[in-house]
Amino acid sequence: MSYAKIGEQLNLSRVAIQKRVEALVENEVIENFTIRLNATKLGKVVSAFFEVEVEPRFAQNVGNSLSADPSVISIYQMTGPSTLHMHALLKDEEALENFLYKHIYTLEGVVRVNTQVVIKRFKQGTGLEL
């Protein structure tokens, strides 16, 4: 939405909105601006979540290695057991199988992988939305 359109809705000028947004960026409240692409229309029809259990001493290496894969959308290390929670978008079931057996299971320190494939999406976010 343009600054002018936001200004209309908030009864402020375009310049006032622009200065406020610039201040939010400068103060790192806004980290970046982005667009959301439809993965299915781009040929990524399999959306899968993974719980990758790793030996604690390998968590950093496994996390870094998986982070480098372009199919991985997000990856987090959570509290509790040494588990990485990951979301990936893949072309098809064959790509999912290759991802599991050639990218995850081959990593040193991986103990177990639990995979869940999305069948229906109710909401998708990219962070804190206003």
From TrEMBL:
SUPFAM superfamilies: Dimeric alpha+beta barrel, Winged helix' DNA-binding domain. One of its GO terms (cellular component) is cytosol. It comes from the Bacteria. Keywords: DNA-binding, Transcription, Transcription regulation. InterPro entries: AsnC-type_HTH_dom, Dimeric_a/b-barrel, Tscrpt_reg_AsnC-like, Tscrpt_reg_AsnC/Lrp_C, WH-like_DNA-bd_sf, WH_DNA-bd_sf. Transmembrane segments: none annotated. GO terms for biological process: response to amino acid. It comes from Paenibacillus foliorum. Gene3D superfamilies: 3.30.70.920, Winged helix-like DNA-binding domain superfamily/Winged helix DNA-binding domain. GO terms for molecular function: sequence-specific DNA binding. Pfam families: AsnC_trans_reg. Residues 1-45 form the HTH asnC-type domain. This is AsnC family transcriptional regulator. The keyword Transmembrane helix does not apply. SMART domains: HTH_ASNC (SM00344). The keyword Electron transport does not apply.
